[in-house]
Amino acid sequence: MRAAADRHLRDLVEGPKRGLKWDLAEALRAIRFFPQVLRLNGGQFEGRPFELQPSQAFRIGSLFGWQKYSAQHGAWLRRFTRFYDEEGKGNGKSPMLGGIGLYMMVADGEPRAEIYAAAAKKDQAGILFQDTVAMVDQSPVLKRRVQQQGENPVWQMTYRGRGGGDKRKFKPLSAEKA
Q1: What are the residue ranges spanned by the domains of the chain?
Q2: What per-residue string of b and e applies to 117-135 under the rule 16 or more CB within 10 Å gives b?
Q3: For residues 81 and 94, what is the distance between their CA atoms, to the nearest angstrom?
Q4: CA geometry: angle at 90 spanning 55 and 44, to 5°?
Q5: What per-residue confidence (pLDDT) applies to 25?
Q6: Nearest-CA neighbor of 138 among 149, 150, 146?
Q7: Cα–Cα distance for residue pair 149/28, rounded to 1 Å
Q8: Mind listing the pLDDT tens digit for each residue in 27-57?
Q9: Where in this chain does the record put each Terminase large subunit-like ATPase domain (predicted)?
């Protein structure tokens, strides 16, 4: 975390020379998605808005706020295309990762996005995915917009972008044979 914070501060100054820009509006848009749209599930948190902890807000902001210019596309794209998160059990890792996936499915604007809750074992991938399904069930906004395929368990969620032609999906994926 310290190294990421140091890089962030350094890149605010040096980044433009390397084709990077910090888009505060995009960072805040992603951060605000969590409490405005997502509801937590389970125990004492059932149905409560997903208020990010400061370290979670920093990670979400970094992921969606930093951009790099792509001459190939003639546009600014997300700087970070991969995200690795490691923290102790019970610190909200699964809900945060599920929230990132939901944001990417319904609010990021990537046409035909495919989001996967991936793990080595089917059960592991299913835990994150089912937590995400429960967040959709708790959110009045997402419950109206996200369709769930399968029942007990849901095996995929889909969202049709504005106009209906852009279908995006979110599902669990594992290395294990079916």
Answers
A1: 2-174
A2: bebeeeeebbebbbbbbbb
A3: 19
A4: 100
A5: 96
A6: 146
A7: 31
A8: 999 999 999 999 988 778 888 899 999 999 9
A9: 56-143
pLDDT at residue 178, as a whole number: 61
The residue behind tokens 């020379």 is: 17
Query: Are 116 and 171 spatial neighbours (Cβ–Cβ below 8 Å)?
Result: yes
For residue 67, give every residue at least 6 positions away whose Cβ sits within 8 Å of its Cβ, in sequence order, or none.
20, 21, 22, 23, 26, 76, 77, 78, 79
Cα separation, 81 vs 66, in Å, equals 11
Q: Which residues fall within 8 angstroms of residue 8, CB to CB, at 6 or more apart?
A: 58, 62
Amino acid at 7: R
Sign of CA dihedral 95, 102, 68, 57: negative
pLDDT interval class at 161 (50, 70, 90)? confident
106-130 pLDDT, tens digit per residue, is: 998 778 889 999 888 888 888 889 9
